[in-house]
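To whoever is on call:

I kicked off a structure prediction for a single chain this morning and the downstream step that reads the tokens threw a length-mismatch warning. I double-checked the sequence; it's 83 residues and nothing unusual in it as far as I can see. Pasting both halves so you can look.
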Amino acid sequence: MHIEAELDDVYTERLLELQKRLNKSLPQLIAEMLAKAIDETPIPPEIEGQKVLRILEEHGLLGCMEGNGHLAVDYKKHLWGNP
């Protein structure tokens, strides 16, 4: 993957100083920094809706019913046969 970034003078100096100190190429240094940032970023907690969808999907309940897709509108018709 090719990534192009524009840094201001302060970050450019800091990055080049770090590169010299660690004696690594810029691509290697940036890849290591990205990997560390990704590994240290916590996974956000699951919100209630996501949790429900995950559980329904795990148990094969999503898409298990046949119908016209308007159950929220005409559920009484399907449950009790009322028009």
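Update from on-call: the warning came from a stale cache, not from the record. Cleared it. Sanity check on the structure: The chain has a mean pLDDT of 88.
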